[in-house]
């Protein structure tokens, strides 16, 4: 009997080690990893620069708490501020914690309570972030939820027009709904979100936990849209596998958090900061991000050419290397077969296959992915092919 709470439905794969875009299992089988720890290992597994940075920091100091100054926190914060519309950063340890900080700051700053979020959104599993999440199945059994969260239909301009309430602290959203099915916002919708914030006095919070840190080919995904968020939250890819989260806020909000307003024992831990610094120095670079966009274009083009004639496939969508393949039937058995054929992908809702390859995935690896998908999907009952060697 397992000694773990059964909170996860685990796939039939036991990880021994991982390097670059590959995971090696207990039987030394190699799997092409287009999951990246759920958009976490954006530089692949065991990136040499991040590894070196953490190793160096391990020898210096692991933890001293936030009772003392830590120059590394300032350095990472400067990198985040430089690459976003924000001016100050609060560090924490996860996406949910970053969103918690955002919700607390929005309420404290505005003195208002209501937070507007969207159906099919995902913002985390803590009480506030679960309450912010617009999915019945995530709430089930945990009520009563935190009050004052309202869920509007995503990409629906009319429902924003109807918002006349002036007790709204913030509108909070993902610009590509990740867990909700890899659904990108439309330009029109984002413009309306920005206008609605201005009209009602609500702050704009963009949850970039999954979309941020180069995933879409920009430092943060909101930069594809005509908006300037008051608060941005980040986590997943920020430490390339080292747990770390951040809330980035605009100048006007800084004074609303004072000593004692909020905090975290581990937040901004030196090891996490060393990982984040090395990760950001590599990813927040125009040339690196240009290559991400090129690879993303190539991957989507190849998927469309090779798979689109299949009646199973309804739509291929996404931004950058956050790609959803919507199918006409549940994808769980397809994902199982892809894994048997040595390609790891994940779902986003019941009918969408989600691809989240490392941002530095090679063209050859993209071609291997396409070959496995093609062979698996195009046969009428899918088929187990001979593993492709990487
Ligand atoms: C994963 C995710 C979260 C939660 O992050 P955790 O680190 O698991 O707490 C929040 N928002 C979005 C958009 C996510 O994808």
UniProtKB/TrEMBL annotation:
InterPro entries the record matches: AcOrn/SuccOrn_fam, Aminotrans_3, Aminotrans_3_PPA_site, Class-III_PLP-dep_AT, PyrdxlP-dep_Trfase, PyrdxlP-dep_Trfase_major, PyrdxlP-dep_Trfase_small
Binding site for N(2)-acetyl-L-ornithine: 125, 264
Subcellular location: Cytoplasm
Broad class of where this protein is predominantly found: cytoplasm
One Pfam family named in its UniProt record: Aminotran_3
Top-level taxonomic group: Bacteria
Note from the entry: May also have succinyldiaminopimelate aminotransferase activity, thus carrying out the corresponding step in lysine biosynthesis.
Family the UniProt entry places it in: Belongs to the class-III pyridoxal-phosphate-dependent aminotransferase family. ArgD subfamily.
UniProt-recorded name of the protein: Acetylornithine aminotransferase
UniProt organism field: Metabacillus herbersteinensis
Origin organism lineage: Bacteria, Bacillati, Bacillota, Bacilli, Bacillales
